[in-house]
């Protein structure tokens, strides 16, 4: 699984909001500056995150964006599958019709097991976990 810029930037956007959870909305310009992500890119990323109810927006001069739920309730898998167009290791896992060898392929079940491991790993990591791990590294 190779993460695209969309997945990486989206994760950084969500982390920025997580660090500010409970402190009020964060402006796009602040997120852009802190995360070194162009505002135009952020504007595209925020749309699916709002539709999925990960993020809510506040209009007005003191407006911005904020997490719609606590950082411990948002896992990496849910965010990445929302932001990434392809997240399977190989295309035949999502559609076995794509490969004529799928029915008899000896390695396809291995790809499937690896995918399940990756999925489980990301499902068990929340934004809160990432923040706590980063704070532990920062204190060292």
Tag the structure with descriptive keywords.
mainly alpha
Characterise this structure.
- It is a single chain.
- The chain is mainly α and about 140 residues long.
- It has a single domain, classed as Arc Repressor Mutant, subunit A, CATH 1.10.10.
- It contains seven helices and two strands, in the order H-H-H-E-E-H-H-H-H.
- Strands 1-2 form a two-stranded antiparallel ribbon.
- A hairpin with a 5-residue loop joins strand 1 and strand 2.
- Helix 1 crosses helix 3, helix 1 packs across helix 4 and helix 1 packs across helix 7.
- The two termini are about 30 Å apart.
- The mean pLDDT is about 90.
SSE diagram, text form:
Layout: H1 5-19, H2 28-35, H3 39-51, E1 55-58, E2 64-67, H4 76-83, H5 91-94, H6 108-123, H7 127-139
Antiparallel strand pairs: 1-2
Helix pairs in contact: 1-3, 1-4, 1-7
């Amino acid at each position: 699984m190779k993460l695209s810029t969309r997945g990486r930037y989206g994760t950084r956007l969500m982390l920025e909001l997580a660090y500010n959870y409970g402190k009020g909305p964060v402006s796009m310009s602040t997120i852009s500056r802190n995360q070194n992500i162009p505002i135009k890119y952020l504007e595209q990323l925020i749309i699916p995150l709002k539709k999925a109810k990960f993020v809510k927006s506040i209009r007005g001069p003191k407006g911005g964006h904020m997490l719609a739920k606590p950082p411990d309730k948002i896992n990496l898998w849910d965010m990445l599958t929302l932001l990434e167009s392809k997240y399977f290791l190989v295309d035949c896992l999502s559609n076995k019709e794509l490969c004529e060898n799928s029915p008899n392929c000896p390695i396809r079940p291995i790809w499937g097991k690896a995918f399940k491991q990756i999925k489980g790993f990301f499902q068990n990591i929340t934004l809160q976990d990432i923040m706590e791990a980063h704070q532990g590294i920062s204190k060292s």
